[in-house]
Design a protein that fits this description.
alpha/beta, FAD/NAD(P)-binding domain, eight-stranded mixed sheet, 28% strand
Length: 364
């Protein structure tokens, strides 16, 4: 394989494949390196994304939504039109929400295909063990040189681990895919059900993705396995898959670029803390990174444009999402009776604003 590249991307998930697509289609010579045999597996998330129409309302500063989120129909398991927020007593606030539940492995493979069609090259079953200057070294001993190196390897990305000192709050999650009949509504569960986080029931075709994430400091010495077992026990049906993962819930790190190094997706903290959304934000950031890389290689523009363009498109969303999680931390420290009392018709719009990364009191 060719040893010299314009850009080397570590990780071929939604962020990495999107960076590759938008850089490669401008003629940039791109190599994507991923340790997995098949990108998209194993499954590591709840698989929920907003519809394009919903996303346009949530992220009005993000251009050309349809171009970015142009999914093949087979990548969508089911659509939903509402979301419920549920207290430990079972009290529920229901909101209209147009969402798509993905078949995540198919979705990620579709992104890989689009990147390859744009001209990117993928190298799988290859683990990056070191990055030094412009050189990326694999566990096989092979070394590749890239003018730009992009870390899209998630919470344990090797580029971020070596060259960034930012600390992130990682919420660890467990989930399962279960067969059965589920309502056409996404439900999120708060309070002692999932201290410091939330549990979820996300309906899919012929079943659901059921999961939970907690923060240890709010868990009163109970661990994630105990909370997961208790939550999962209320669902009857054949379990077809069990998985786990981690979400960075501190929001974006201060700097996405250092010299010729860049981060995108989870490795840059591109997860909205107030709701855990990471797939769409990773792709938004990935597109910006890919476009900036192309402008740098082709026209000599600074890579710092990446941070400026992200701020223009997603800065307000991230700011209000970080604020929202501060409101959430008050709730995480509250007893269940107070959480239950706070879910009412008066607070309903304020809670939804926090979840949707809007100023809670409506003041910008």
């Amino acid at each position: 394989m060719e040893k010299h590249w314009d850009a080397i991307i570590i990780g071929g998930g939604p962020a990495g494949s999107t960076v590759a697509k938008y850089a490669a289609r401008e003629g940039v010579k791109v190599l994507v390196i991923d340790s997995r045999e098949k990108i998209g597996s194993p499954l590591q998330c709840g698989e929920l994304v907003p519809s394009n129409e919903q996303l346009e309302k949530l992220c009005p500063a993000v251009p050309e939504i349809e171009d970015l989120f142009n999914l093949p129909e087979e990548a969508i398991s089911r659509r939903t039109s509402s979301m419920g927020l549920v207290t430990p007593s079972g009290k529920k606030l229901v909101y209209p929400f147009q969402g798509k539940i993905l078949e995540r492995p198919i979705h990620d493979q579709a992104l890989v295909k689009l990147a390859k069609e744009a001209g990117a090259t993928f190298l799988t079953k290859s683990k990056v063990i070191d990055i030094q200057d412009n050189n990326v070294t694999l566990s096989s001993g092979d070394t590749f040189e890239g003018k730009i190196i992009v870390g899209c390897g998630g919470t344990h990305d090797p580029l971020r681990g070596k060259y960034w000192n930012d600390k992130s709050l990682n919420i660890f999650v467990k989930f399962m895919l279960i067969e059965g009949d589920f309502e056409d509504r996404v439900d999120l569960f708060f309070g002692s059900t999932a201290p410091g986080g939330y549990a979820w029931v996300i309906p899919k075709k012929n079943g659901a993705n059921v999961g939970i994430g907690i923060q240890k400091k709010f868990s009163n010495n109970t661990n994630l396995k105990e909370k997961a077992d208790k939550f999962f026990s209320q669902f009857k049906g054949k379990v077809t898959y069990r998985g786990s993962g981690a979400l960075p819930m501190s929001g974006t790190i201060k700097k996405f670029t250092k010299g010729n190094y860049m981060l995108a997706g989870d490795s840059a903290g591109m997860v909205l803390p107030s709701n855990g959304a990471g797939i769409t934000t990773a792709m938004i950031g990935g597109r910006v990174a890919g476009q900036v890389i192309a402008d740098h290689i082709n026209n000599g523009k600074s890579l710092v444009e990446y941070e400026k363009k992200w701020e223009k498109q997603m800065g307000k969303m991230m700011k209000y999402s970080k604020r929202g999680i501060k409101w959430g931390n008050i709730m995480f420290n509250s007893p269940d009776w107070l959480v239950d009392a706070s879910f009412n018709s008066l607070t309903k719009p304020f809670i939804w604003r926090a979840i949707n990364c809007r100023p809670v009191l409506g003041i910008y």
